Amino acid sequence: MEDAIKSIEKEYKFQKIEWPVFRVGWVIMAVFLITGIAGLFGSGALSERKEENTEASVEYEQLLRYSVESKVFILLKKPLADSTLSINADYIKAMKIDKVIPEPIAMELNDSMLKYRFANTDIEEISLILKPIDTGKKQLKLHINGTESVFNQYIFF
Question: pTM of the full predicted structure?
């Protein structure tokens, strides 16, 4: 009988140490789950952004996952004056642009910018479908009708 009591006492001491560790683990898992649902690891309230300036309203995801498709929506307030949209070359090195809607008629790449030329100036919305091919902090610089807009994004695992 004494052996059984000693065994139970040993298990009780172990459980007093183990239970707080389990509770900390539960809290960590709950925080991870809630932040994931909220958008920390992709689309959601923590990631989605909408910024406006005099030329356009831009909707994008601030937090991107490596190799997972993302979209940037550019809603123009005025028609494109010269029918071009420019994106900084540093950003293009970190992203694979899968599609541009509407389809541009020409592209021109120089040291600092990628310029898309469109067929007409009556465009109201431009959509960029991107896939990150690099990780870390990236800056998207859009030039629309001579106005530069800068958007910060972070690409992780």
Answer: 0.75
